[in-house]
Amino acid sequence: MGDFLIPAPERVKQFAEHVVFGTRVLDVGTGSGILAKLAYERGVRDVTAIDINPAAVAHARNLLPHVTVLHGDLFENVSGVFDTILFAAPWSEGVIRTMFDHALYDCGVVERFFKNVRPYLATKGRIWLQYCDAFPENFSRLPQWISANGFQVECSWSYMAWGQLARRQVSVILYEIR
Ligand SMILES: C[S@@+](CC[C@H](N)C(=O)[O-])C[C@H]1O[C@@H](n2cnc3c(N)ncnc32)[C@H](O)[C@@H]1O
User: What is the pTM (predicted TM-score) of this model?
Assistant: First the structure.
């Protein structure tokens, strides 16, 4: 493994097939910058991306000179309001020991995301969250994280994949949330 996550193509394809991009896009946990790149390629010119991992930030800045790439924890240093907020979240259970581990282990980050995202979402904006049922304890709490903060799932799409850490077939799910 490198210093940041190299995305599985099917994961990116799920966003490419379903996301309806608004005019202002925020990519939380941008990693390699792949979803911010997708937004830019779809014609969005107001794209902001953020990651907690400095190696990911350096890579994304290099890849995407026209995108504002910030270093920080979730919405730290983010200003403005966005029509489209993307978050390909970490979904596994485990302990974060290295910067790379932020790409794998949830450790409460999705719950914090929903507690704090509201001021950054435009009135008719949408959140596009990718998550997975690989770890039942995390997955079973997702509906509560969403509803406790006044959000609801508008639509969802899933595909089956091999879960490396769960060591079984898992379902990768993209949620459209408002
Ligand atoms: C599953 S990876 C997804 C990366 C990329 N968006 C993609 O689709 O390939 C999750 C990303 O979220 C980042 N991340 C995790 N916790 C974060 C936090 N608290 N603030 C910002 N980024 C975070 C990780 O460093 C990692 O790059």
Answer: 0.98
